[in-house]
Amino acid sequence: MALPTWIAVDWGTTHLRAYAIGPEGVLADAASEDGMGQLARDGYEPALLRLISPWLAPGRVTEVVACGMVGSRQGWFEAPYRTVPCTPLDSASLVTVPTRDARLKLRLVPGLRQDSPADVMRGEETQIAGALAVLPGFDGVFCLPGTHSKWVQVSAGEVVSFQTAMTGELFSLLSSQSVLRHGMQGDGWDEQSFRNALSDAISRPERLAARLFALRAEGLIAGLSAASARARLSGLLIGIELAAARPYWLGQSVALIGAEGLCATYARALAAQGIAARQLPAAACTIAGLSRARTPKVSA
Amino acid sequence: MALPTWIAVDWGTTHLRAYAIGPEGVLADAASEDGMGQLARDGYEPALLRLISPWLAPGRVTEVVACGMVGSRQGWFEAPYRTVPCTPLDSASLVTVPTRDARLKLRLVPGLRQDSPADVMRGEETQIAGALAVLPGFDGVFCLPGTHSKWVQVSAGEVVSFQTAMTGELFSLLSSQSVLRHGMQGDGWDEQSFRNALSDAISRPERLAARLFALRAEGLIAGLSAASARARLSGLLIGIELAAARPYWLGQSVALIGAEGLCATYARALAAQGIAARQLPAAACTIAGLSRARTPKVSA
After folding, report:
1. What was the ipTM of the complex prediction?
2. Distance from B20 to chain A by nearest Cα, in Å?
Protein backbone atom coordinates (compact mmCIF):
# COMPACT_ATOMS: atom_id res chain seq x y z
CA MET A 1 0.00 0.00 0.00
CA ALA A 2 1.20 3.52 -0.81
CA LEU A 3 1.76 5.76 2.21
CA PRO A 4 -1.20 8.05 2.91
CA THR A 5 -1.13 11.80 2.35
CA TRP A 6 -2.90 12.19 5.67
CA ILE A 7 -4.97 10.19 8.17
CA ALA A 8 -8.56 10.93 9.15
CA VAL A 9 -9.64 9.87 12.66
CA ASP A 10 -13.11 9.64 14.18
CA TRP A 11 -12.63 9.16 17.94
CA GLY A 12 -15.73 8.90 20.06
CA THR A 13 -16.71 7.63 23.50
CA THR A 14 -16.86 3.98 22.51
CA HIS A 15 -14.86 3.65 19.31
CA LEU A 16 -11.78 4.75 17.39
CA ARG A 17 -11.83 4.68 13.59
CA ALA A 18 -8.97 5.69 11.29
CA TYR A 19 -8.80 6.14 7.51
CA ALA A 20 -5.59 6.33 5.46
CA ILE A 21 -6.21 8.93 2.75
CA GLY A 22 -4.28 9.16 -0.52
CA PRO A 23 -4.67 11.48 -3.51
CA GLU A 24 -7.52 9.32 -4.85
CA GLY A 25 -9.35 8.79 -1.56
CA VAL A 26 -9.40 6.14 1.15
CA LEU A 27 -6.49 3.68 0.89
CA ALA A 28 -7.28 1.68 4.02
CA ASP A 29 -9.24 1.84 7.24
CA ALA A 30 -8.95 0.41 10.74
CA ALA A 31 -11.02 0.48 13.91
CA SER A 32 -10.80 -0.48 17.57
CA GLU A 33 -12.83 -0.25 20.77
CA ASP A 34 -10.33 2.22 22.27
CA GLY A 35 -12.92 4.95 22.76
CA MET A 36 -12.57 7.79 25.25
CA GLY A 37 -14.45 5.75 27.84
CA GLN A 38 -11.70 3.11 27.86
CA LEU A 39 -8.65 5.35 27.98
CA ALA A 40 -6.62 7.27 30.55
CA ARG A 41 -4.85 10.38 29.27
CA ASP A 42 -1.57 8.59 28.57
CA GLY A 43 -3.40 5.79 26.75
CA TYR A 44 -4.43 7.82 23.70
CA GLU A 45 -1.15 7.95 21.79
CA PRO A 46 -0.44 4.19 22.18
CA ALA A 47 -4.05 3.42 21.15
CA LEU A 48 -3.69 5.55 18.02
CA LEU A 49 -0.31 4.04 17.13
CA ARG A 50 -1.67 0.49 17.52
CA LEU A 51 -4.10 1.34 14.75
CA ILE A 52 -2.14 3.54 12.34
CA SER A 53 1.55 2.56 12.72
CA PRO A 54 1.39 0.38 9.55
CA TRP A 55 0.68 3.62 7.68
CA LEU A 56 3.65 5.55 9.09
CA ALA A 57 7.25 5.53 7.88
CA PRO A 58 10.52 6.34 9.70
CA GLY A 59 11.62 9.96 9.32
CA ARG A 60 8.35 10.94 7.64
CA VAL A 61 5.82 13.21 9.38
CA THR A 62 2.22 12.25 8.68
CA GLU A 63 -0.65 14.63 9.20
CA VAL A 64 -3.51 13.29 11.34
CA VAL A 65 -6.80 15.15 11.83
CA ALA A 66 -9.26 13.86 14.44
CA CYS A 67 -12.75 14.77 15.58
CA GLY A 68 -15.01 13.62 18.42
CA MET A 69 -14.73 13.19 22.17
CA VAL A 70 -10.93 12.89 21.86
CA GLY A 71 -10.97 16.70 22.05
CA SER A 72 -13.11 16.94 25.20
CA ARG A 73 -11.87 17.91 28.65
CA GLN A 74 -11.84 14.21 29.60
CA GLY A 75 -10.17 13.29 26.30
CA TRP A 76 -6.59 13.41 25.08
CA PHE A 77 -6.29 17.17 24.81
CA GLU A 78 -8.98 19.81 25.09
CA ALA A 79 -10.07 21.57 21.92
CA PRO A 80 -12.30 24.37 23.29
CA TYR A 81 -15.81 24.60 21.84
CA ARG A 82 -16.65 27.18 19.20
CA THR A 83 -19.98 28.96 19.83
CA VAL A 84 -22.94 28.90 17.42
CA PRO A 85 -24.00 30.55 15.24
CA CYS A 86 -20.85 29.73 13.28
CA THR A 87 -19.61 27.56 10.42
CA PRO A 88 -19.40 23.91 11.46
CA LEU A 89 -15.61 23.99 10.99
CA ASP A 90 -12.87 26.58 10.93
CA SER A 91 -9.42 25.39 9.85
CA ALA A 92 -7.79 28.11 11.95
CA SER A 93 -9.38 26.67 15.12
CA LEU A 94 -7.83 23.22 14.91
CA VAL A 95 -5.83 22.43 18.03
CA THR A 96 -2.37 20.89 17.70
CA VAL A 97 -1.66 18.07 20.15
CA PRO A 98 1.93 17.45 21.28
CA THR A 99 2.92 13.82 20.65
CA ARG A 100 5.89 11.72 21.77
CA ASP A 101 6.17 10.04 18.40
CA ALA A 102 7.79 12.57 16.04
CA ARG A 103 6.16 10.92 13.00
CA LEU A 104 2.77 12.37 14.01
CA LYS A 105 1.44 15.85 13.34
CA LEU A 106 -1.91 15.62 15.10
CA ARG A 107 -4.66 18.24 15.14
CA LEU A 108 -8.12 18.06 16.72
CA VAL A 109 -11.37 19.58 15.48
CA PRO A 110 -13.19 21.61 18.17
CA GLY A 111 -16.82 20.84 18.98
CA LEU A 112 -19.64 23.37 19.03
CA ARG A 113 -21.54 24.87 21.95
CA GLN A 114 -24.81 26.70 22.18
CA ASP A 115 -25.28 28.94 25.19
CA SER A 116 -29.08 29.06 25.37
CA PRO A 117 -30.58 26.51 25.55
CA ALA A 118 -27.27 24.98 26.66
CA ASP A 119 -26.08 22.26 24.32
CA VAL A 120 -22.85 20.79 23.00
CA MET A 121 -21.63 18.54 20.17
CA ARG A 122 -18.30 16.91 19.32
CA GLY A 123 -17.89 15.06 16.06
CA GLU A 124 -21.24 15.94 14.52
CA GLU A 125 -19.91 19.36 13.42
CA THR A 126 -17.45 17.48 11.19
CA GLN A 127 -20.17 15.30 9.68
CA ILE A 128 -22.27 18.40 9.02
CA ALA A 129 -19.36 20.07 7.23
CA GLY A 130 -18.92 16.90 5.17
CA ALA A 131 -22.63 16.82 4.35
CA LEU A 132 -22.46 20.45 3.23
CA ALA A 133 -19.62 19.46 0.89
CA VAL A 134 -22.01 16.93 -0.68
CA LEU A 135 -25.03 19.25 -0.58
CA PRO A 136 -23.62 22.73 -1.18
CA GLY A 137 -26.07 25.50 -0.34
CA PHE A 138 -28.22 23.20 1.81
CA ASP A 139 -30.61 25.22 3.95
CA GLY A 140 -32.57 23.20 6.45
CA VAL A 141 -32.11 20.67 9.22
CA PHE A 142 -29.66 17.83 9.74
CA CYS A 143 -30.73 15.02 12.04
CA LEU A 144 -27.89 12.82 13.33
CA PRO A 145 -29.59 9.96 15.19
CA GLY A 146 -27.63 7.91 17.70
CA THR A 147 -26.69 7.63 21.36
CA HIS A 148 -27.23 11.37 21.63
CA SER A 149 -29.32 12.39 18.62
CA LYS A 150 -28.71 15.88 17.28
CA TRP A 151 -31.11 18.15 15.41
CA VAL A 152 -29.17 20.92 13.72
CA GLN A 153 -30.53 23.94 11.88
CA VAL A 154 -28.17 25.08 9.11
CA SER A 155 -28.52 28.23 7.04
CA ALA A 156 -26.07 30.03 4.74
CA GLY A 157 -23.35 27.53 5.61
CA GLU A 158 -23.63 28.18 9.38
CA VAL A 159 -24.97 26.12 12.26
CA VAL A 160 -27.73 28.37 13.61
CA SER A 161 -29.00 26.24 16.53
CA PHE A 162 -29.16 22.64 17.67
CA GLN A 163 -30.84 20.31 20.12
CA THR A 164 -29.78 16.95 21.60
CA ALA A 165 -31.99 14.03 22.67
CA MET A 166 -30.58 11.06 24.63
CA THR A 167 -32.70 8.63 22.63
CA GLY A 168 -30.10 5.96 21.88
CA GLU A 169 -28.75 5.98 25.42
CA LEU A 170 -32.28 5.72 26.87
CA PHE A 171 -33.08 2.80 24.55
CA SER A 172 -29.91 1.03 25.57
CA LEU A 173 -30.44 1.56 29.32
CA LEU A 174 -34.12 0.61 29.25
CA SER A 175 -33.79 -2.41 26.97
CA SER A 176 -30.74 -3.91 28.67
CA GLN A 177 -30.70 -2.66 32.29
CA SER A 178 -34.26 -1.86 33.40
CA VAL A 179 -37.13 -4.18 34.32
CA LEU A 180 -38.18 -3.97 30.65
CA ARG A 181 -35.16 -6.11 29.64
CA HIS A 182 -37.06 -9.26 30.70
CA GLY A 183 -39.41 -8.90 27.74
CA MET A 184 -36.87 -7.77 25.12
CA GLN A 185 -34.48 -10.64 24.48
CA GLY A 186 -33.37 -11.11 20.88
CA ASP A 187 -33.37 -8.58 18.08
CA GLY A 188 -36.75 -9.09 16.40
CA TRP A 189 -38.75 -6.14 15.15
CA ASP A 190 -42.48 -5.60 14.64
CA GLU A 191 -42.89 -2.63 12.31
CA GLN A 192 -46.60 -2.12 13.01
CA SER A 193 -45.89 -1.89 16.75
CA PHE A 194 -43.17 0.66 16.02
CA ARG A 195 -45.53 2.79 13.93
CA ASN A 196 -48.34 2.67 16.48
CA ALA A 197 -46.07 3.58 19.40
CA LEU A 198 -44.43 6.35 17.38
CA SER A 199 -47.74 7.88 16.44
CA ASP A 200 -49.01 7.60 20.01
CA ALA A 201 -45.89 9.24 21.46
CA ILE A 202 -45.83 12.10 18.95
CA SER A 203 -49.49 12.93 19.44
CA ARG A 204 -49.60 12.33 23.21
CA PRO A 205 -46.04 12.69 24.54
CA GLU A 206 -47.44 13.46 28.01
CA ARG A 207 -48.44 9.79 28.31
CA LEU A 208 -44.86 8.49 28.08
CA ALA A 209 -44.49 7.78 31.80
CA ALA A 210 -47.54 5.50 31.65
CA ARG A 211 -46.52 3.79 28.39
CA LEU A 212 -43.15 2.37 29.41
CA PHE A 213 -44.17 0.02 32.21
CA ALA A 214 -47.06 -1.22 30.06
CA LEU A 215 -44.41 -3.02 27.96
CA ARG A 216 -43.52 -5.09 31.02
CA ALA A 217 -47.12 -5.59 32.15
CA GLU A 218 -48.26 -6.72 28.68
CA GLY A 219 -45.36 -9.14 28.61
CA LEU A 220 -46.53 -10.63 31.89
CA ILE A 221 -50.27 -10.79 31.34
CA ALA A 222 -50.93 -10.42 27.62
CA GLY A 223 -48.07 -12.33 25.96
CA LEU A 224 -46.45 -9.30 24.30
CA SER A 225 -43.62 -10.59 22.08
CA ALA A 226 -40.02 -9.40 22.43
CA ALA A 227 -40.08 -8.15 18.82
CA SER A 228 -43.14 -6.04 19.53
CA ALA A 229 -41.81 -4.77 22.88
CA ARG A 230 -38.49 -3.65 21.34
CA ALA A 231 -40.19 -1.94 18.43
CA ARG A 232 -42.66 -0.20 20.74
CA LEU A 233 -39.90 1.04 23.05
CA SER A 234 -38.06 2.40 20.00
CA GLY A 235 -41.26 4.00 18.70
CA LEU A 236 -42.02 5.65 22.05
CA LEU A 237 -38.52 7.08 22.44
CA ILE A 238 -38.17 8.29 18.85
CA GLY A 239 -41.70 9.64 19.15
CA ILE A 240 -40.92 11.84 22.13
CA GLU A 241 -37.70 12.92 20.42
CA LEU A 242 -39.72 14.00 17.37
CA ALA A 243 -42.28 15.72 19.61
CA ALA A 244 -39.51 17.75 21.27
CA ALA A 245 -37.82 18.46 17.93
CA ARG A 246 -41.01 19.50 16.10
CA PRO A 247 -39.80 23.13 15.67
CA TYR A 248 -36.75 21.67 13.90
CA TRP A 249 -38.44 19.45 11.32
CA LEU A 250 -41.91 20.91 10.78
CA GLY A 251 -42.05 22.30 7.25
CA GLN A 252 -38.26 21.96 6.84
CA SER A 253 -35.92 20.24 4.44
CA VAL A 254 -34.41 17.39 6.52
CA ALA A 255 -31.30 15.28 5.86
CA LEU A 256 -30.32 12.33 8.04
CA ILE A 257 -26.66 11.51 8.74
CA GLY A 258 -25.80 8.25 10.48
CA ALA A 259 -25.75 4.47 10.42
CA GLU A 260 -27.85 3.10 7.57
CA GLY A 261 -30.38 1.05 9.56
CA LEU A 262 -30.95 3.75 12.16
CA CYS A 263 -31.34 6.44 9.49
CA ALA A 264 -33.87 4.26 7.69
CA THR A 265 -35.88 3.95 10.93
CA TYR A 266 -35.86 7.73 11.41
CA ALA A 267 -36.74 8.23 7.75
CA ARG A 268 -39.85 6.06 8.19
CA ALA A 269 -40.75 7.96 11.35
CA LEU A 270 -40.40 11.29 9.57
CA ALA A 271 -42.28 9.99 6.51
CA ALA A 272 -45.23 9.24 8.81
CA GLN A 273 -45.19 12.99 9.64
CA GLY A 274 -45.10 13.93 5.97
CA ILE A 275 -41.37 14.69 5.84
CA ALA A 276 -39.27 13.10 3.05
CA ALA A 277 -35.76 13.05 4.51
CA ARG A 278 -32.57 12.43 2.56
CA GLN A 279 -30.06 9.96 4.01
CA LEU A 280 -26.29 10.46 4.07
CA PRO A 281 -23.76 7.85 5.25
CA ALA A 282 -21.93 8.81 8.45
CA ALA A 283 -18.40 7.65 7.57
CA ALA A 284 -18.32 9.43 4.22
CA CYS A 285 -19.52 12.65 5.87
CA THR A 286 -16.89 12.36 8.59
CA ILE A 287 -14.06 11.88 6.09
CA ALA A 288 -15.29 14.70 3.85
CA GLY A 289 -15.57 16.97 6.89
CA LEU A 290 -12.08 16.15 8.18
CA SER A 291 -10.76 16.77 4.67
CA ARG A 292 -12.36 20.23 4.75
CA ALA A 293 -11.02 20.90 8.22
CA ARG A 294 -7.39 20.47 7.16
CA THR A 295 -7.81 22.81 4.20
CA PRO A 296 -7.59 26.54 4.95
CA LYS A 297 -10.91 28.22 4.21
CA VAL A 298 -9.71 30.23 1.21
CA SER A 299 -9.06 27.06 -0.76
CA ALA A 300 -12.29 25.29 0.31
CA MET B 1 -38.48 -11.70 73.69
CA ALA B 2 -41.86 -13.45 73.66
CA LEU B 3 -42.48 -15.63 70.61
CA PRO B 4 -44.56 -13.89 67.95
CA THR B 5 -48.17 -14.78 67.13
CA TRP B 6 -47.28 -14.47 63.46
CA ILE B 7 -44.62 -12.96 61.19
CA ALA B 8 -45.24 -10.29 58.55
CA VAL B 9 -42.90 -10.30 55.54
CA ASP B 10 -42.40 -7.67 52.86
CA TRP B 11 -40.30 -9.31 50.12
CA GLY B 12 -39.47 -7.20 47.10
CA THR B 13 -36.95 -7.20 44.26
CA THR B 14 -34.12 -5.70 46.29
CA HIS B 15 -35.01 -6.26 49.95
CA LEU B 16 -36.49 -8.66 52.50
CA ARG B 17 -38.09 -7.24 55.65
CA ALA B 18 -39.68 -9.25 58.44
CA TYR B 19 -41.70 -8.20 61.50
CA ALA B 20 -42.41 -10.41 64.53
CA ILE B 21 -45.97 -9.58 65.59
CA GLY B 22 -47.39 -10.20 69.06
CA PRO B 23 -50.79 -9.43 70.54
CA GLU B 24 -49.75 -5.81 71.17
CA GLY B 25 -48.06 -5.21 67.83
CA VAL B 26 -44.51 -5.39 66.48
CA LEU B 27 -42.10 -7.21 68.83
CA ALA B 28 -39.05 -7.08 66.59
CA ASP B 29 -38.01 -6.50 63.02
CA ALA B 30 -35.19 -7.60 60.75
CA ALA B 31 -34.11 -6.89 57.18
CA SER B 32 -31.63 -8.12 54.59
CA GLU B 33 -30.68 -7.51 50.98
CA ASP B 34 -31.96 -10.94 49.96
CA GLY B 35 -34.48 -9.56 47.47
CA MET B 36 -35.88 -11.56 44.57
CA GLY B 37 -33.14 -10.20 42.31
CA GLN B 38 -30.48 -11.94 44.41
CA LEU B 39 -32.11 -15.35 44.84
CA ALA B 40 -32.50 -18.59 42.93
CA ARG B 41 -35.66 -20.57 43.66
CA ASP B 42 -34.01 -22.76 46.31
CA GLY B 43 -32.47 -19.74 48.00
CA TYR B 44 -35.72 -18.28 49.37
CA GLU B 45 -36.32 -20.57 52.34
CA PRO B 46 -32.71 -20.29 53.64
CA ALA B 47 -32.85 -16.49 53.20
CA LEU B 48 -36.08 -16.31 55.20
CA LEU B 49 -34.75 -18.60 57.94
CA ARG B 50 -31.55 -16.54 58.27
CA LEU B 51 -33.76 -13.62 59.19
CA ILE B 52 -36.57 -15.13 61.29
CA SER B 53 -35.13 -18.28 62.91
CA PRO B 54 -34.56 -16.41 66.24
CA TRP B 55 -38.36 -16.01 66.35
CA LEU B 56 -39.14 -19.71 65.79
CA ALA B 57 -39.26 -22.49 68.39
CA PRO B 58 -38.84 -26.27 68.02
CA GLY B 59 -42.11 -28.14 67.58
CA ARG B 60 -44.08 -24.89 67.19
CA VAL B 61 -45.67 -23.90 63.87
CA THR B 62 -45.49 -20.14 63.20
CA GLU B 63 -47.70 -18.42 60.66
CA VAL B 64 -45.88 -16.25 58.11
CA VAL B 65 -47.68 -14.00 55.62
CA ALA B 66 -45.64 -12.36 52.84
CA CYS B 67 -46.36 -9.90 50.04
CA GLY B 68 -44.33 -8.57 47.13
CA MET B 69 -42.28 -10.02 44.28
CA VAL B 70 -41.75 -13.24 46.28
CA GLY B 71 -45.09 -14.32 44.77
CA SER B 72 -44.17 -13.58 41.15
CA ARG B 73 -43.39 -16.18 38.50
CA GLN B 74 -39.67 -15.51 39.02
CA GLY B 75 -40.11 -15.57 42.82
CA TRP B 76 -40.37 -18.39 45.34
CA PHE B 77 -43.81 -19.61 44.37
CA GLU B 78 -46.34 -18.03 42.04
CA ALA B 79 -49.42 -16.42 43.58
CA PRO B 80 -51.57 -15.67 40.50
CA TYR B 81 -52.77 -12.09 40.10
CA ARG B 82 -56.32 -11.12 41.01
CA THR B 83 -57.99 -8.87 38.43
CA VAL B 84 -59.28 -5.35 39.14
CA PRO B 85 -61.81 -4.07 39.92
CA CYS B 86 -61.60 -5.97 43.21
CA THR B 87 -60.76 -5.47 46.87
CA PRO B 88 -57.02 -5.02 47.36
CA LEU B 89 -56.89 -8.25 49.38
CA ASP B 90 -58.95 -11.40 49.72
CA SER B 91 -57.96 -13.77 52.52
CA ALA B 92 -59.32 -16.72 50.56
CA SER B 93 -56.84 -16.03 47.74
CA LEU B 94 -53.68 -16.39 49.80
CA VAL B 95 -51.42 -19.08 48.36
CA THR B 96 -49.81 -21.61 50.68
CA VAL B 97 -46.14 -22.33 49.94
CA PRO B 98 -44.72 -25.77 50.78
CA THR B 99 -41.65 -25.44 53.02
CA ARG B 100 -38.96 -27.89 54.10
CA ASP B 101 -38.87 -26.49 57.62
CA ALA B 102 -41.98 -27.79 59.40
CA ARG B 103 -42.00 -24.81 61.77
CA LEU B 104 -43.23 -22.55 58.96
CA LYS B 105 -46.77 -22.09 57.73
CA LEU B 106 -46.15 -19.66 54.87
CA ARG B 107 -48.78 -17.92 52.73
CA LEU B 108 -48.31 -15.35 49.96
CA VAL B 109 -50.55 -12.42 49.05
CA PRO B 110 -51.41 -12.31 45.31
CA GLY B 111 -50.75 -9.14 43.34
CA LEU B 112 -53.30 -7.35 41.17
CA ARG B 113 -53.57 -7.10 37.41
CA GLN B 114 -55.45 -4.74 35.15
CA ASP B 115 -56.21 -6.00 31.66
CA SER B 116 -56.63 -2.70 29.82
CA PRO B 117 -54.43 -0.73 29.91
CA ALA B 118 -52.23 -3.66 30.96
CA ASP B 119 -50.69 -3.14 34.38
CA VAL B 120 -49.61 -5.16 37.40
CA MET B 121 -48.68 -4.64 41.06
CA ARG B 122 -47.23 -6.86 43.79
CA GLY B 123 -46.95 -5.55 47.32
CA GLU B 124 -48.75 -2.27 46.81
CA GLU B 125 -52.16 -4.00 47.12
CA THR B 126 -51.18 -4.91 50.69
CA GLN B 127 -50.17 -1.34 51.53
CA ILE B 128 -53.44 -0.08 50.07
CA ALA B 129 -55.42 -2.51 52.25
CA GLY B 130 -53.41 -1.29 55.25
CA ALA B 131 -54.08 2.33 54.34
CA LEU B 132 -57.81 1.57 54.08
CA ALA B 133 -57.63 0.14 57.61
CA VAL B 134 -56.29 3.53 58.74
CA LEU B 135 -58.63 5.56 56.53
CA PRO B 136 -61.87 3.54 56.44
CA GLY B 137 -64.24 4.68 53.72
CA PHE B 138 -61.46 6.46 51.79
CA ASP B 139 -62.62 7.30 48.28
CA GLY B 140 -59.92 8.73 46.05
CA VAL B 141 -56.42 8.00 44.84
CA PHE B 142 -53.39 6.43 46.48
CA CYS B 143 -49.99 7.33 45.08
CA LEU B 144 -47.18 4.94 46.02
CA PRO B 145 -43.98 6.59 44.76
CA GLY B 146 -40.85 4.50 44.25
CA THR B 147 -38.92 2.45 41.72
CA HIS B 148 -42.22 1.82 39.94
CA SER B 149 -44.64 4.46 41.18
CA LYS B 150 -48.29 3.44 41.32
CA TRP B 151 -51.38 5.64 41.03
CA VAL B 152 -54.40 3.73 42.30
CA GLN B 153 -58.03 4.77 42.18
CA VAL B 154 -60.01 3.34 45.10
CA SER B 155 -63.75 3.49 45.57
CA ALA B 156 -66.11 1.64 47.92
CA GLY B 157 -63.21 -0.43 49.25
CA GLU B 158 -62.18 -1.67 45.79
CA VAL B 159 -59.24 -0.93 43.52
CA VAL B 160 -60.95 0.44 40.41
CA SER B 161 -57.93 1.12 38.19
CA PHE B 162 -54.22 1.86 38.44
CA GLN B 163 -51.24 3.13 36.47
CA THR B 164 -47.49 2.57 36.88
CA ALA B 165 -44.62 4.96 36.08
CA MET B 166 -40.98 3.81 36.11
CA THR B 167 -39.89 7.09 37.70
CA GLY B 168 -37.56 5.75 40.39
CA GLU B 169 -35.90 3.30 38.03
CA LEU B 170 -35.40 6.01 35.39
CA PHE B 171 -33.88 8.35 37.99
CA SER B 172 -31.52 5.64 39.15
CA LEU B 173 -30.42 4.64 35.62
CA LEU B 174 -29.99 8.21 34.41
CA SER B 175 -28.23 9.56 37.51
CA SER B 176 -25.84 6.65 37.95
CA GLN B 177 -25.37 4.99 34.55
CA SER B 178 -25.99 7.55 31.80
CA VAL B 179 -23.80 10.43 30.61
CA LEU B 180 -25.68 12.60 33.12
CA ARG B 181 -23.89 10.86 36.00
CA HIS B 182 -20.80 13.04 35.43
CA GLY B 183 -22.66 16.08 36.74
CA MET B 184 -24.55 14.41 39.61
CA GLN B 185 -22.00 13.30 42.17
CA GLY B 186 -23.04 13.70 45.81
CA ASP B 187 -26.53 13.99 47.24
CA GLY B 188 -27.15 17.74 47.37
CA TRP B 189 -30.54 19.18 46.47
CA ASP B 190 -31.62 22.54 45.08
CA GLU B 191 -35.33 22.93 45.79
CA GLN B 192 -35.87 25.85 43.42
CA SER B 193 -34.36 23.85 40.55
CA PHE B 194 -36.69 20.97 41.44
CA ARG B 195 -39.75 23.23 41.39
CA ASN B 196 -38.83 24.89 38.10
CA ALA B 197 -38.14 21.57 36.35
CA LEU B 198 -41.33 20.06 37.76
CA SER B 199 -43.45 22.94 36.57
CA ASP B 200 -41.77 22.90 33.16
CA ALA B 201 -42.30 19.14 32.72
CA ILE B 202 -45.95 19.21 33.82
CA SER B 203 -46.85 22.06 31.54
CA ARG B 204 -44.67 21.01 28.56
CA PRO B 205 -44.05 17.25 28.88
CA GLU B 206 -43.38 17.07 25.13
CA ARG B 207 -40.08 18.88 25.74
CA LEU B 208 -38.66 16.09 27.93
CA ALA B 209 -36.35 14.64 25.28
CA ALA B 210 -34.68 18.04 24.88
CA ARG B 211 -34.46 18.75 28.63
CA LEU B 212 -32.41 15.75 29.74
CA PHE B 213 -29.18 16.32 27.81
CA ALA B 214 -29.30 20.00 28.79
CA LEU B 215 -28.33 18.86 32.31
CA ARG B 216 -25.06 17.55 30.88
CA ALA B 217 -24.50 20.52 28.58
CA GLU B 218 -25.11 23.08 31.34
CA GLY B 219 -22.67 21.15 33.54
CA LEU B 220 -20.02 21.47 30.82
CA ILE B 221 -20.50 25.05 29.71
CA ALA B 222 -22.52 26.85 32.39
CA GLY B 223 -21.24 25.40 35.67
CA LEU B 224 -24.52 23.70 36.67
CA SER B 225 -24.05 22.30 40.19
CA ALA B 226 -24.60 18.63 41.04
CA ALA B 227 -27.28 19.62 43.56
CA SER B 228 -29.18 21.53 40.91
CA ALA B 229 -28.72 18.83 38.26
CA ARG B 230 -30.04 16.08 40.58
CA ALA B 231 -33.02 18.16 41.66
CA ARG B 232 -33.83 19.08 38.06
CA LEU B 233 -33.65 15.46 36.90
CA SER B 234 -36.00 14.52 39.74
CA GLY B 235 -38.34 17.39 38.88
CA LEU B 236 -38.42 16.45 35.19
CA LEU B 237 -39.19 12.79 35.87
CA ILE B 238 -41.79 13.41 38.58
CA GLY B 239 -43.22 16.11 36.32
CA ILE B 240 -43.82 13.75 33.41
CA GLU B 241 -45.20 11.18 35.85
CA LEU B 242 -47.70 13.77 37.11
CA ALA B 243 -48.53 14.80 33.54
CA ALA B 244 -49.35 11.19 32.65
CA ALA B 245 -51.27 10.66 35.92
CA ARG B 246 -53.32 13.85 35.69
CA PRO B 247 -56.63 11.95 35.29
CA TYR B 248 -55.77 10.25 38.59
CA TRP B 249 -55.06 13.28 40.79
CA LEU B 250 -56.95 16.17 39.21
CA GLY B 251 -59.74 17.15 41.60
CA GLN B 252 -59.23 14.01 43.68
CA SER B 253 -58.49 13.23 47.29
CA VAL B 254 -54.88 11.92 47.23
CA ALA B 255 -52.97 9.96 49.88
CA LEU B 256 -49.26 9.11 49.52
CA ILE B 257 -47.86 5.82 50.81
CA GLY B 258 -44.10 5.34 50.90
CA ALA B 259 -40.73 6.34 52.31
CA GLU B 260 -40.95 9.59 54.24
CA GLY B 261 -38.52 11.71 52.22
CA LEU B 262 -39.86 10.57 48.87
CA CYS B 263 -43.48 11.13 49.95
CA ALA B 264 -42.57 14.64 51.12
CA THR B 265 -41.09 15.36 47.66
CA TYR B 266 -44.26 14.14 45.95
CA ALA B 267 -46.40 16.08 48.43
CA ARG B 268 -44.58 19.30 47.48
CA ALA B 269 -44.99 18.45 43.79
CA LEU B 270 -48.73 17.87 44.24
CA ALA B 271 -49.09 20.98 46.42
CA ALA B 272 -47.71 23.01 43.50
CA GLN B 273 -50.70 21.66 41.52
CA GLY B 274 -53.14 22.62 44.27
CA ILE B 275 -53.48 19.12 45.72
CA ALA B 276 -53.05 18.66 49.50
CA ALA B 277 -52.02 15.02 49.83
CA ARG B 278 -51.98 13.04 53.07
CA GLN B 279 -48.85 10.97 53.80
CA LEU B 280 -48.90 7.44 55.22
CA PRO B 281 -45.78 5.49 56.25
CA ALA B 282 -45.07 2.45 54.06
CA ALA B 283 -44.03 -0.06 56.72
CA ALA B 284 -47.08 0.56 58.94
CA CYS B 285 -49.37 0.17 55.90
CA THR B 286 -47.65 -3.08 54.89
CA ILE B 287 -48.00 -4.58 58.37
CA ALA B 288 -51.64 -3.47 58.70
CA GLY B 289 -52.37 -4.91 55.25
CA LEU B 290 -50.71 -8.26 55.98
CA SER B 291 -52.64 -8.38 59.26
CA ARG B 292 -55.86 -7.93 57.30
CA ALA B 293 -54.82 -10.53 54.76
CA ARG B 294 -54.51 -13.29 57.36
CA THR B 295 -57.93 -12.50 58.83
CA PRO B 296 -60.92 -13.96 57.01
CA LYS B 297 -63.09 -11.20 55.62
CA VAL B 298 -66.05 -11.73 57.94
CA SER B 299 -63.97 -10.73 60.96
CA ALA B 300 -62.25 -7.78 59.28
Report:
1. 0.93
2. 31
